[in-house]
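Exam review. A common question shows you a sequence with its structure tokens and asks you to describe the fold in words. Practice with the pair below. Do the first one on your own.
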Amino acid sequence: MNVPLSRRGLQRGVIIIPNAFTLGNLFLGIWAIVAASRGAFELAAWLIVFAGIADTMDGRVARATKTGSKFGEELDSLVDAISFGVAPALVIYHLYLSAEHWAWIAAFFYIMGAVIRLARFNVEQAGHAKVSFHGLPSPSAGMTLATFYPFSQTPFFQQHLAAWPWPTIITMLMFALSVLMISHVLYPVVPKAGIRSVRLVINSVFLLSCIVAAILIPSLFFFPALIGYIAWGLGKSLFLGFMERLPDEDLLLDVEPGDEAGAELRDIDYADLGGRPRRRLKRRRRRPIPDEPPPHNQGEHAP
């Protein structure tokens, strides 16, 4: 049976929506690179933050519309390499590294860490729901570097922190972020929110507080909050390693169905867009052997 034209048009539109967010992420990343080259570092920083929001939205839209695919995974990683690898590295390069002849090597190591981290994510975690990231996520690393400049322009920074050797500190931070992105440190995903339990209510209050702070005092909020996130994951891993405590379950995977923290997976047959009917494979059920009675109470979910 041929797919109706109205249905094909609707499916085509649904597939385009998550990819539009991904390409919007790319547009913001390229814009940030251009802004940094022109000296508009604060604009470049917020463009990278908005790219991070777009990166979050494309996966959520893909899961909500059930339009996941390997194409979406690969496109998202390629875009992230630019928006959260190249763009923040160039922001820091133009700020602190351009005067030194070989200082751009620090930017290279950061971009290398981001690219390796994204390639490993595609192999290990892409397409699976998870409760932890294996290594520091590249959007978190990129936004950490990008939001330093707005933070450095605040009165609090100018009064209390301006005397610190920030060019050296930020250069060392770039190396540290590149190592953390390819490390085995587990970083938590955005916690689930809701009202069904006390934990979900606490998560909801925490997320709402972060959103309010991000809107009202973005320059003071983002950089310290991201540094806290990085320190939390690293400190927790060091503590568990020191105590020799191993988790009882795989923290990279979330077994609960429909997890909003899952990675983007777009299981779409693009042949449907051209009007060709999709062939469905029928799974042949296994019949019991006549000479042997069927097993008792051995259902699909039996241990």
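Now try the second one, then compare your answer with the model answer below.
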Amino acid sequence: MRILVTGGAGFLGSHLVDALVARGDEIVVLDDLSRGDESQVNPGAKFIQGDVRSFSDWKKACEDFNPDVIHHLAAINGTRRFHKEADLVVDVNVNGTRMSLRAAKKYKATLIFYSSPEAFGEQENMPLRNESTSVFTPAHLHQRHSYGASKHIGELLCQFESRKGLDVRIVRPCNVYGPRLRGDDNGQVVSMMMESNPIVVHGDGLQTRSLTWIYDVIEGLLKVNDSSNLSGKAFNLGSNQEISMVDLATIIGELRGVEIVHGESNHGDSKRRLPDISMNDEIDWHAKTSLEDGLAQLL
């Protein structure tokens, strides 16, 4: 199978590329290296540096390749960037998705769009279902939801094209962690706690997340890639093991032997995030790795 992966030099994308190459697929990676690293791209894949907002770069990746499937992961991520760089977040995430749909139509490829639980904003009713309403606070308070809103718009665009006959599938990886996850100021919570000293907990730390081991998620992504009759369907690829951030910090702090301090809350940080995973029965997938096992493997 010929597969194009945008954002394939990043954390999740590079692990996906590894799995696809390992099973014999022909892979092209399109990435601008703004967050990814070319050293993470599997040598069995062809790498093209480019901007997903530029259709000429899409042509470079697709013209002589004609992908069967496009995995569109490329996006501006990093919680602190959502408020500070809202214009860039919206530009890359929305226009990159528009170009991915254009490419999928031109080259007659299946598109797998990578959304996020952030697409539901500050929805408080859990678990998050495909039928859940997205709740975004007034824009003048902060721009944290530039990311979540851009993913929500991405889902709208995908569903629109699905109605017109394009094979589009939606996945929402849920707080994925594992090797290669960045732990800098724009990183994700597990890696930041793994690398910082002391560990900083934002606010009171009572906000909860359901963290999911990278290799479990990759297994789910392969099933979405390979299954039939999934157009217009969305899958929360996550664990239902919920943990507060202060408890997570306590576990990691004890494992690493470092102290915990409390810092300022992040703008618009949702109090809970627990995914509904019932839709995953359709692809016969559920997360298997407990948080304790995953953290032990990561250490």
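Model answer, second protein: The chain is about 35% helix and 15% strand. The first helix runs from residue 11 to 22. Full marks require stating both points clearly.
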